## 1
Amino acid sequence: MERLVLLDIVNKKPEIINNTKELYNKIYDPSIPKYILGINYLSDRIIDSFAKENINLQGIIDDYSDETKYRNIKIFKLSDVSKDSLVISCVVDGRLQTAMENIDSNSILYKLNYFELCLHNSELFDYPQFCENNLADIDTHGKEYEWLYGILDDDKSREILNCLIDLRYNFNINATKHFELNLDLQYYDDFIKFGSNEVFVDCGGFDGTSSLEFIKRNPEYKKVFFFEPTSKYYYLAKERFKSSRNIMLFNNAVYEKNCTLTFDSTKGSASGLSINGDVLVRAIKLDDIINEYITYMKFDVEGAEYSTILGAETLIKKYKPKLAVCVYHNQEDFWRIPKLVLKYNPEYKVYLRHYTEGLLETVMYFI
């Protein structure tokens, strides 16, 4: 297993840019039909950027839509696109490699991923969500990433860290070839062992799926503490818990202190604290709410993980529960969260796992 060396990672960027330069320049070739694969916030960025640059867009590819147009641009199936086209995939979150392979399987002559557009012109093509601070943080905190590499407990964790930094710093989509979409294992990977009388704290419970999976895997559980600030999903989860026992439900955000915060409730499972939020939510400190033995805590709170752990200091110090923490929302969480948790309790073993082909669902475990 090679040790992570930041200099090597830095040196990959010019190589990737050089290898994709000819492809990138084809977006300005009017003779080549150009398509976007996928409809999301990145496709909107490309549409707007192409309009600024007077680049003609032939259409949008979406094999799963019944609509015929998006923003007055015609929607195509991938199989209907001419082979001599340039297809730009906007899939960076979950199924990045699958999307690129689908383009190949349809014998499309030219293909790019949104990450590669960013490498060539980040002013025209802004960094994707969860990548805004990646480059600056890795450049500034190289020693912290070397430290993290050294304290991870198994080779798989170290390999995943290498690949993630390659993806998140270089935007090297080839790094994702080492990943698989495997959401069934998220929060319940093979090294997490459960006993009887487990007590689960679900921070960012959304619609209750994670808690229901916990209950399924631990029929002799003692209690579940469930926290979800979005009323729509809180009440959906409450309905789903009707046949379950000992569920403590809180329609609250979790944070480092008890306060009122602005919250963006418009993004489904990605809803989170935001200064531009559309609603006010009451946030609570876990140490003030829970005063009993707990065994497992899950943190998926859309960027507020560090603050939430600050509010769980007593619980972590006193009970040393198993922890599953999403670290992909903020680049600095890769190193500042393990520093904080190990400060609270240095006896933890640390693991890193990743559950998609793209940017989403990187979880750090403390066992």
## 2
Amino acid sequence: MFDKILVANRGEIALRVIRAAREMGIQSVAVHSTADADAMHVRMADESVCIGPPPGAESYLSIPAIIAACEVTGAQAIHPGYGFLSENATFVQIVEDHGLTFIGPTAEHIRIMGDKITAKDTMKELGVPCVPGSDGGVPTLEAAKTLCDDIGYPVIVKATAGGGGRGMKVATSAADIETAFRTARSEAKAAFGNDEVYIEKYLTTPRHIEIQVFGDGKGKAVHLGERDCSLQRRHQKVFEEAPGPAISPEERARIGKTCSDAVARINYTGAGTIEFLYENGEFYFIEMNTRLQVEHPVTEAIFGVDLVREQIRVAEGLPMSFGQDDLAINGHAIEVRINAEKLPEFAPRPGKITQFHAPGGLGVRMDSALYDGYSIPPYYDSLIAKLIVHGQDRASALSRLHRALGELIVDGVDTTVPLFHALLAEDDIHSGNYNIHWLEKWLQTNLQD
């Protein structure tokens, strides 16, 4: 058993891991930049170490500083949370080279899934359905034109090392492909230092469905159903729910087994999420995230499991505490991501919290590191809270979300809470009739961006 783990992250996810460790009787070490000296995760941990100045590259992304923090505190393992170094294969290898345990998958699996072409090829071999497209990178414009003529328009050009919507361009016809191809490559080079792109068929009205998987690293794996993350703005998720309102039990069982079988075959360790576009009853693989997802609480709510606790257990070499037959869906859960942003332009608005009150009551969970008087620093992501509700069915979950949003108080900064009040007045939200383009179109009409 671990006696002490270090959490290589900040904010609500660091606090989430610290709480799980405390329930397991494991001491925690928080790392922080000078800007986060008064952060809640620092206050809640058993120990804390300052690892550098505010910029992420000089603190939360500084591998030497994090390893040194383990050495001075005696931490035996590192939990990366999400973001920062959570999917950095080099970091994982350095952690292991120093005799420490990385709470997550192997460096090899992170490398495989971190390159979208390799990931797609791997998933094809494992029997996971993929979007029609190039078998690898597309080196020239002429090759792109030939491929697009074969698979048909519309198509999407994507950076192989992409993320967060950067290096992605849609071409609706042959007249658009040159601009899309050149722009995607240029953006990819600027954002990731790698201008390689690949091309896929562009689905016009898909939903974004992701399957939560968990493996023990020894050939055993399970799936924990799906999450629908279709409500997105600029490829960033805003509203997530489980189970998906458009997925039948038969479809869930089919795609879930496909995913759990796939990760079992590669001896995957810990939590992972396999993401799909879903249209007309078919699933098409787009990527795998080899970490805990921001939206993992909705899965925990409907299955009654603690995914962080399970991550720690498996990293210790213990068997998984549940099998597939132990997992049954109970009710419906929804998460909304609350950002410190000014509407309608969604501009980041860091500042001092003058009053904070989290909602409560049956079926309400608030994952946040806010407190009265806390100053949100301007250096990091604008996500400040996740409000999660759980009800006996989707209608009761939506009703509970409405009630909880009404109780929430965050004064001193602008937030995206008004967006969710507005969305809950829409019939399409209540009927579950939306796809990945719905929110962008709604915003154009209802919130001038």
## 3
Amino acid sequence: MATKSTDKVESFYIAIILYKSSSDKHDYQPLYQESFILIKATSLEEAKAKALNHSKNETVSYTNENGETITWSLQQVIDVNSVLDDNFDSSEDVVDLYARHFRNYEAYHSFEPLLSKEQFE
């Protein structure tokens, strides 16, 4: 008797994860880090679970040059979505992976430190 294969096809997903730094210093100003990770999974639900599991395991503490303990920990998993084009074997030099939309450019400009009026040369 032949058995059916239950192997599901894996696809790629992008997760955006927000981390926050904290310190034992009383007047410490937190720093935030936005990380984009690539996940291989058989479904969006599995990708979300993998993103959450990965991000919870990324808590890191260290002592900086001033003797202060700095701890990076998960703030929130912002988004998990399938990549726009998972054809990584294509002969093209560029592959679109992720896009998100917003309406308030001024808000984006106020928090994005790399945004400037200069174009890449």
